[in-house]
Amino acid sequence: MTTIGPTRMSRFFQHFHQGNPGIELTVRDATLPGLLHDLERGDLDLAVVSSPRDLGDTFRTEPLYRERYVVVFPPGHRLERLEGIALNDLAGEDYVDRLACELREAVMAACGQRKVELYAAFLQRARGLGRIHGAGRARLRFHAGIFSAPERITATATGRPAG
């Protein structure tokens, strides 16, 4: 999945390879629907995914870890002064709409339910954690707007949970 990325999984892959030298492991990045489709067809034996919803009885699922999504904004942004950030605090902000984000629909639905309008000033079509991380740093450098992202990629930025 796009936000799980190789950073979190790389140690697992290394240990798996050392403990199972005769097994080939192929890693590829794809969308949640694409991975689920390939699992159903039998083209994949296993998929590591992040899903905003329950996958039902079709698949056996095991949680690997939990991670919060946070709002990321450039240094000096008005949100930096707030102790906590409510979804309403984001109304009217220039928003970087990450089109490949698996939680995009959930974020947009929450905004719709609470009548919070975000201005999609920029669209990001790139996928993959490395591209998100690099693009995130570029957005912050050029003050392109706020965006939501997994908490772990905000080490070089200012990020806070919003709810």
What does this 3D model show about the protein?
With 163 residues, the chain is of the alpha+beta class. The protein has 4 helices and 5 strands, in the order ααββαβαββ. Strand 2 (94-98), helix 3 and strand 3 (119-124) form a beta-alpha-beta unit.
Keywords summarizing the entry:
single chain, two-stranded parallel ribbon
| H/E topology pattern | HHEEHEHEE
Q: Roughly what percent helix?
A: 25-40%
Instruction: Quickly count the helices.
Output: 4
Identify the quaternary structure here: single chain
Overall spatial form? elongated
Average the pLDDT over all residues and give the rounded result.
75
Report the sheet-strand fraction: 5-15%
Radius of gyration: 17 Å
- Provide the structure class: alpha+beta
First-to-last CA distance:
24 Å
Q: Strands of the largest sheet, in order across it?
A: 4-1-5
Please describe the biggest sheet, giving its number of strands, its sense, and whether it closes into a barrel: 3 strands, antiparallel
Residue runs with pLDDT of under 50 for 5 or more positions: 128-133
Please provide a brief summary of the model.
This protein is α+β, with helices and mostly antiparallel strands and 163 residues long. It contains 4 helices and 5 strands, in the order ααββαβαββ.
Spell out the blueprint of helices and strands.
Layout: H1 5-19, H2 32-41, E1 69-73, E2 94-98, H3 104-113, E3 119-124, H4 129-141, E4 147-150, E5 158-161
Parallel strand pairs: 2-3
Antiparallel strand pairs: 1-4, 1-5
